[in-house]
Amino acid sequence: MSLRNNGRLSRREILKALSMCAAGSTMGPMLTGCRDALTTPAALEQLGGVRQARLDGKPRFLIVVGAVGGASIIDSMLAVRASESSTAGGNAARLNTFADAQVQNVDGSPFRAVKVDSPQLGNIPVPVKTDQLPFVKKYKDSMLVATTVGTSVNHAIAQKRSLTGNNAWRGRTLQECVALQYGAGLPLPNVNMGNSGFAERGTDRSLPAYCYGEVVANPSLWPLGLDGMKGLKDVPSRDMVALARSVRNSLDAQSIFGKTFDDAAALRLWNEQRTTGQATLEVQDLISRLNVMPDQPPKTPLSEYGLSSSPDAERLRAVFPNYMSDPVQGQAALAFLLLKHRVSVSVTLGPSFNMVVTPSYEVTNPPLAYDFSHNDHRSIQAFMWSRLMDTIDKLIELLKSEPFDSSGESLWDRSLIYMATEFGRTRSRPEGATEMFGTGHDLNNGFMILSPMVRGNTLLGGVDPKTTLTYGFDPRTGTPLPGKVESNEADIFSGILTAMGVDTSGSALPDASAFRRT
């Protein structure tokens, strides 16, 4: 028995499975058992089936980068030249098109790269000089851009829908799907350092608790909370603390509160986390292995408290020198360690709406992130694209340098980066304006996906140069569909899971084979 590209069984295969289940069974149990068998990967393998393509039992890793505020795809890989728009009959001077020299071709690729030189960042007197060409040239063969039409221009709602495909599969997030597929037995399969809707969990309450995201507010300090006693002075021995915990748990269970709510799911989860869960974290010494901070008295006197840095800490501090002041750098450093040490299979990071200034007074995040485009679209989009491209590039280099196992694969070979944005930006501008024009929210946009597992150097969809609006594609074949302008959030959702080899046979997701590298 084999699974088709869309992860579903053919009618003949279903009948074969039913006949196999029928042996020695009555009709009722047979149907119940086979229903379960046809929707669980383990049972499919027992029946002689195989999981979806590329699923080999080894973990794969999802990295979601939340582009807060609306990263515009036509200000990056799908930029439109003014001459192209004019030739197609568009009013290039009133659309968000670029001077021809600002849009650079990428040899042998459907992608473009934008170069912007602006005297200031919105109304902030910080010069903006960006060039996307080195990044796009470097990663084009692992890059897929899929155009999209969303269903909301509300920040939080659109953020969450970019993760659930607008409830494409029982309201599960991409991170939860990956954690379910690959995260069983890991300490914290799904760690979420995102903001607002990017940090929300899905709505499928039937998932195991380990699938839901562990929210991390401060990535540089968070590892110090992964041990209940290490890092404290003059504490009793671990044996004594273990005895105290055992007595506490026993007394809690015998209390009126414990007896009244002993069947409550929340209390059961709490008890599991502070017994088995806590022990799992402590035995792996994650308080040290995930710690990027140096032992540097008097500011961070780790050794004074019996603590130490990760063996990778010095390297990570060199790559992300602003890890303490710039949350995105701190998140990227922690993301690498979480994947390297098999703590997680899904990590989420990204900027917030808060302005960030380093100790040297360098602006690394403008207020509202991409949404500061309301103030000045061109310079903000250029700055934020450059900011995230730089972070992603450094993270990928780290993943490339780390072996996955003895097979010769690196962590990057089994990773996928999804730059999830909320929505696009409106296309109009005052005639001829190149600076200080603002844009609003727009449903029309596109997503950047980076991975050795996706069909690289590929554009799914396209842009109409007359309007600078994107159009859709067939998610199965990848065929451009210029007339397709309806929402396709489920296609993006399905495509990412397909590329990552996640078993979607229990869903009604569309066949998104066009995303997967063949």
Task: Produce the secondary structure layout.
Layout: H1 11-22, H2 27-37, H3 41-46, E1 61-67, H4 82-87, E2 103-105, E3 112-118, E4 128-131, H5 133-139, E5 143-149, H6 155-164, H7 174-182, E6 190-192, E7 214-215, H8 238-254, H9 256-260, H10 265-283, H11 286-289, H12 313-319, H13 327-340, E8 346-349, E9 356-357, E10 363-365, H14 377-401, E11 415-421, E12 424-425, E13 441-442, E14 444-450, E15 458-460, E16 462-464, E17 469-473, E18 480-481, H15 489-499
Parallel strand pairs: 1-8, 1-11, 5-15, 6-7, 6-8
Antiparallel strand pairs: 2-3, 3-4, 5-14, 9-10, 11-14, 12-13, 16-17, 17-18
How does this structure look, described?
The chain is of the alpha/beta class and 518 residues long. It has one domain: Alkaline Phosphatase, subunit A, CATH 3.40.720. The chain is 31% helix and 14% strand. The protein has 15 helices and 18 strands. The strands form five sheets. Strands 7-6-8-1-11-14-5-15 form an eight-stranded mixed β-sheet, sandwiched between helices. α6 crosses α15. The longest helix is centred in the C-terminal third of the chain and has 25 residues. The N terminus is likely disordered. InterPro entries: TAT_signal.
